[in-house]
Amino acid sequence: MPKASEIKKHAAIEYNGRVMIIRDIERSVPQGRAGGSLYRMRMYDVVNGGKVDETFKAEEMLKLADLTRRPAMFSYVDGEEYVFMDEEDYTPYHLNKEAISEQVLFINEDTKGLLVVVVEGTPVSIDLPSSVELVIEETAPSIKGASASARTKPATLTTGLIVQVPEHISTGDKIKINTTEVKFMSRADS
């Protein structure tokens, strides 16, 4: 059983007899508490989607929920649901757009390495690969002679995600993005 300080976003834990997915974690260190970090976690019930905000002490033990991760690929959008296809047995997984709103900004038909998180037979979330390749739909014109300096500009990708890119990158370029930090890594290998 991990401590609260070891839990990451998108982990599934058992809390009050329910399986919860962690969506957001804020760490705070109140004044006057010797080494006592607090972790405020926003959790969603995997069954009914109910939201719970709870604060845990760093040393508090949490129980990870029984879940499996299945390799899958994005298939299509059906109204408010995104449909993913299991790469091994072709099971379709339907996920509500709201439940994976942050992750869909990194996903298109070509995204490889997706994992569907399944808890007790129900698909509840998506685990993204560490990096994805997406095409820039719109950004300011590239500046001639701009070196790969530290100066950046915003770029809107085909999925709607906005990231900062170096000045020499232009519209139509395919770039590699770190999904954890939401940062430009490099141009993608063509």
Protein described:
This protein folds into 3 domains: 4-64, SH3 type barrels (Roll), CATH 2.30.30.30; 67-127, OB fold (Dihydrolipoamide Acetyltransferase, E2P), CATH 2.40.50.140; 131-187, OB fold (Dihydrolipoamide Acetyltransferase, E2P) (Beta Barrel). The chain contains no helices and 15 strands. It has strands at residues 12-15, 18-28, 38-45, 51-57, 63-64, 67-78, 81-86, 92-96, 114-119, 122-127, 131-139, 152-157, 162-166, 174-178, 183-187. A hairpin with a 5-residue loop joins strand 3 and strand 4 (51-57). The chain is flat and about 55 Å long. One of its GO terms (molecular function) is translation elongation factor activity.
Rg, rounded, reads 19 Å
Strand content: over 45%
Tell me the domain tally: 3
Principal-axes shape call? flat
Alpha-carbon distance between the two ends: 43 Å
Q: Strand pairing plus helix content: what structural class?
A: mainly beta
CATH hierarchy: architecture of the largest domain:
Roll
Unreliable residue stretches: none
CATH-assigned fold name of the largest domain:
SH3 type barrels
Strand tally: 15
CATH class of the largest domain: Mainly Beta
What is the chain-wise order of helices and strands? Answer: EEEEEEEEEEEEEEE
Please give the largest β-sheet. 5 strands, antiparallel
Helix content: under 10%
Widest sheet, order of strands: 4-3-2-1-5
List the total number of helices: 0
GO biological process, one term: peptide biosynthetic process
Protein name: Elongation factor P-like protein
GO molecular function: translation elongation factor activity
Pfam families: EFP, EFP_N, Elong-fact-P_C
